[in-house]
Amino acid sequence: MALSSTERNIRASLPIIRFLNAYLPLSLTRWAIKQSTAKARLPADVSRQAVSADGVPCEWIVPQHSPADHVLLYLHGGGFVLGLTSLHLQMVAYLVRKLGIRALLVDYRVAPEYPFPAALEDCVTAYRWLLKQNIAAQNIVVAGDSAGGNLTITTLMKLRDSGDPLPAAAVCLSPVADISDRSGHFQELYDPVLHPKAAKLYNQSYVAHNDARDPLISPAFGDWRGLPPLLVHAGEDEILRDDSVQIEKLAKAAGVDVRLEIYPRMWHVWQLNMGLPQAVQSLNDIAQFLKAHLRLST
Q: What DSSP line would sit under 98-138, residue for residue?
C-alpha cells in the first residue's frame, strides 16, 4: 500500500521528535507544551472550559448541543512527566464531535515532582467527581493514550477494588502495561518515536521508590477480572505493541470483552497526527465502539 504524502512528511519528522524526547530538557519541553496548549484552536462548535474536579485541574471539551449526562473521561499521555498538550485537545475535540458528548480531560500531577500514586489518585478523583455531578457510571466512558492508557486500566482496577461503579467501556491507545525494567527490550528493538533514554527517564520518574511490578503501576501484573469492555489500538511499528498484545491476552483470560486492533506501519499514538488517514480511521472506530456501549444513536 502506497504511503500518503501526509504520512511521508510525518515519518520524516519522527527521528527529530525521537531525539528531542530524549535530549531536550524536561523544563523546556514543558514550557513549550504549556505555550501551545494555551493557544490551542478548536473547531468553532466545540468549547473549552477549565474546571476543578475536587481539586484536580481538568478541561471540559464540549461540542454544541451535547447532553450533560454523558461524558468521555480522557487521560492524556506524556510518559507520566508531561502535561496536557494541544494535540490531545484537538484529538479529543474530534472524538467528542463524532460522539456528540462532552469530554473531561484530566490534567493530573506529573513525575518526577509527583511520582506514583499521584497521577492515579487524580484520575480516580476526577471519575468520582463525575459521579458526584449525578452522571451515572453507565453514561461514562474512559480513554487514554500511552501513559494515559496505563492510567485508564489502573483507574478501572482501583475503582473496582474500591467498590465504585465502573464506566460503560474503556479505550487504550498505545498503552503501557508493564513498567518493570525492560531496558534490554528497548535496546534490541527500534521504536520510531520512543527513545530508550526517554523511556528510562519516564519510567524511573513515575515509579520512584515504589515496586514497578505493583499492579497499579504495571497492570500486566494485576487482576483483570470484572473490567468493562475494552478496545485497544496499537501501531505495528511501535515497541509497545507487545504491551497491547499482552493486554488482550490478559483481559481475554479474565473474561473481559476485549478487542485489539494493530494498525500497519503506524507508530506510538499516531492518532495525534490528525492529518493522517489512519488517525481518522482509528478515531472513527473508537467513536463507534464507545457509542455502542453508551447506547447512543449512530
A: HHTSEEEEE----TTTS-TTHHHHHHHHHHHHHHHTT--GG
Do 116 and 206 touch, CB atoms closer than 8 A?
yes
Residue 1: pLDDT over 80: no
39-80 residue pLDDT tens: 999 999 999 999 999 999 999 999 999 999 999 999 999 999
**Can you name the CATH fold of 5-294?**
Rossmann fold (3.40.50)
Which pLDDT does position 60 carry in this prediction?
98
Cα separation of 49 and 105, whole Å?
10
Residue 53's DSSP bridge partners are 56
Q: Model-level pTM greater than 0.90?
A: yes
Could you give the residue numbers annotated as active site?
A: 146, 238, 268
C-alpha angle with apex 260: 259 to 265, nearest 5 degrees? 155
Domain boundaries, given as residue ranges, for the chain: 5-294
